[in-house]
Design goal:
Blueprint (H helix, E strand, L loop, with lengths): L34 H7 L23
């Protein structure tokens, strides 16, 4: 986050694009997910697999 403007940078790769003289104004902001956000980010067993195979997640990419 830029302490001067409050601008938040989401990806670490943008950190490399910032000139060295301006890096002193940036602070790394880390926050934990809330319980609701954690629950929403989980994949249901019977949901379609995210790999696009058309199978259910339970039978495709679920790690045993």
């Amino acid at each position: 986050m830029d302490t001067r403007t409050g601008m938040i940078i989401f990806h670490e790769r943008f950190e490399d694009a910032i000139p060295d003289e301006q890096k002193k104004h940036f602070v790394r902001v880390v926050r934990d997910l809330s319980l609701k956000e954690k629950a929403e980010s989980q994949i249901a067993l019977y949901a379609p697999c995210v790999c696009g195979s058309g199978k259910k997640f339970k039978f495709c990419c679920r790690k045993p």
